[in-house]
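Session log. Operator J.P. requested a structure for one protein chain; no other inputs attached. Running the standard single-chain path with token output.
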Amino acid sequence: QAGVLDIVFKLADDRGLLLLDMDDLRALLGLVAEERKDISTEYGLVSAQSIAAIQRSVLRLAQDGGEHFFGEPALELADIMRVNHDGRGVIGILAADQLVLKPKLYSTFLL
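Structure written below.
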């Protein structure tokens, strides 16, 4: 399914479609499903089974709370890179005690 996602992202770029959050990804996957034959001709084979598998994974990720990690505003590295009043770096620690209970979301967030 990674190859199909590559096609989905390339299609979004080529058509100037914004892909800001999981709702946008779901909508784009629906579009790819509808135009699968034409897209397969131009970008490479996109099977209905692959689209369905990706849609199920996105649904599972959303049910685990993944929508909180994707979307606007985007994470800015400057938000987590800080210094204290002495000019020393501040280390941020992610409290992941609840996140670790959802392995798929945890691994997606860390990657």
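Operator note: DSSP finds six helices and two strands in the chain.
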